[in-house]
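Notes from hallway chat w/ T.B., transcribed later so I don't forget. T.B. wanted the structure written out for a chain they're using in a teaching module, and asked if we could keep both sequence and structure tokens in one place. Agreed to drop them here.
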Amino acid sequence: MKIRLLPIVAMLLFSTAALAVELPIFDAHIHYSHDAVELVPPEEVAKILRDAGIKKALVSSSDDDGTQKLKAAAPEIIVPALRPYRRRGELGTWMHDPTVIDYLNARLSEFDYEAIGEFHAYGNDIETPVIQQMIGMARDRNLILHHHGDREALDLIFDTWPEARVLWAHSGFEGPQGIADALETYPRLWSDLALRSGMASLGAVREDWRELFMAYPDRFVLGTDTFAPERWYYVGSHAETSRNWLADLPDDVARKIAFENAEAMIDSK
């Protein structure tokens, strides 16, 4: 008896291709700072996001005007986050500048946000009065903290606010074992995969990352990190590359990482 495998193989390939094309994406690490606003107008950015199939994007900017302009151009896509930086060059100094608190208070009083960040803080930076007050603001408003920093700083954030929802930028640039330990320790921690290219090669997910995704399928989100204006022209290709390697995971896990986890993080108040 002959077994006709070709139709079966064709169906599997079609299913994978359909997932890659149709999979919506929630990009949870986007910036639209003052220099990007000058070079890439909000209407062009909105088109870039729509063309890439980005259904939602967590956006923060230095300063916040960029986020507000982009939200006006694409209100159905933009999920605003408030960054504590007013201009570039404040990444290493903002936690020692008490005027940051005035800036955050003014913006929080005027606009609605879902998160504070992305903010850079390492080690005992978290214990500075400015960051402690900022965490208090997030607690009072039940906002996500989008943190770029090391495990020591992450631990101190949760020491300060054990019930915090924290999005760990770039998964702390940790390897799979370090990420797994953090996710196991903190049930309200999510890891973004911005600027992480080691998960897959030629569309095939590495085995150590596959084990991590299968162990914590609800805790990873995608991100492009448009930290410079020219990064906006990578949004489409990054979305395509993400869909390609996600297609190597079970459909339900792929959908969680692509879109559903970020939505659940926003909704889990």
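Follow-up for T.B.: The domain at 24-267 is CATH 3.20.20.140 (TIM Barrel). Might be a good example for the class.
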